[in-house]
User: Fold this.
Amino acid sequence: MIWRLRSGHPASYTSDMILKKPDSVENKPVAMAGAQNVCMQLLCGPDDGCPNFAMRKFTVAPGGCTPRHQHDYEHEVYILAGEGVVFGNGKEQRIKAGDSMYVPANEVHQFRNDAAAGAGSLEFLCLVPALVHKPGAPQPIMVDCAVEAVPAR
Amino acid sequence: MIWRLRSGHPASYTSDMILKKPDSVENKPVAMAGAQNVCMQLLCGPDDGCPNFAMRKFTVAPGGCTPRHQHDYEHEVYILAGEGVVFGNGKEQRIKAGDSMYVPANEVHQFRNDAAAGAGSLEFLCLVPALVHKPGAPQPIMVDCAVEAVPAR
Assistant:
């Protein structure tokens, strides 16, 4: 994190606004066990100076999914494009562009693109506390994707 | 904020996942001085149990703008639809769907939809620390929209 005072500006200015174009951010395959055909762009994170929360964009190809997992921090999610399924509260629900979700800490959750091959990707923003993207952050607890972790209500 | 233990689930479950459809969230005109033709939906906030940050969706009609203002907390912004102009770092830059921004604390900033009447709205997510949406939060410092607050670099 670099704090840069800008000459001639009020002392309250401590860093610059950052504007990123979509193609300027590396889109990395998610290597976490259980992730299938998922890529992530870290749009705002600690390296940008973000003190409190981090914004990531996920792209899930048809047939792909995020791991069914849980962790002790929350997600705030906004579906940008496509449709699919979210697992949470012990069941699956359909989601599509424009939907938003709050996934509280310790909730077992998963996002799946159940579209046929060749259909569109499921794209969503998923925000987390900035600490998650700092070195040494604790790893999420993984839950077997083949098993319903929590009985449906 | 309501924490609800769910019978039959592990004790680590402290609240439910919340899934909101776009039309289920009230879209309120922004009443802040200097805001013109802007509406806001609070998608995730303290009332949902969000502990750290809040997700809002803004819609700026053609010719509209957010106030040119500053405050002691940051924004993380993602442009969902349309195009327009962001003021930050003392200058205006064009923005469009897919762009993302980190607006650090104390940065004078503004979003404008400079499209002609009848064109599409500028829509974006703007996230802030959750405290901002708790009662009694401090109000932003307003900057005269007609004046360049910070000299262009």
Q: What stands out?
A: Chain B touches chain A through 53 residues (CB under 8 Å). Confidence is low (pLDDT under 50) at residues 1-13, 145-153 of chain B. The longest strand of chain B covers residues 53-65.
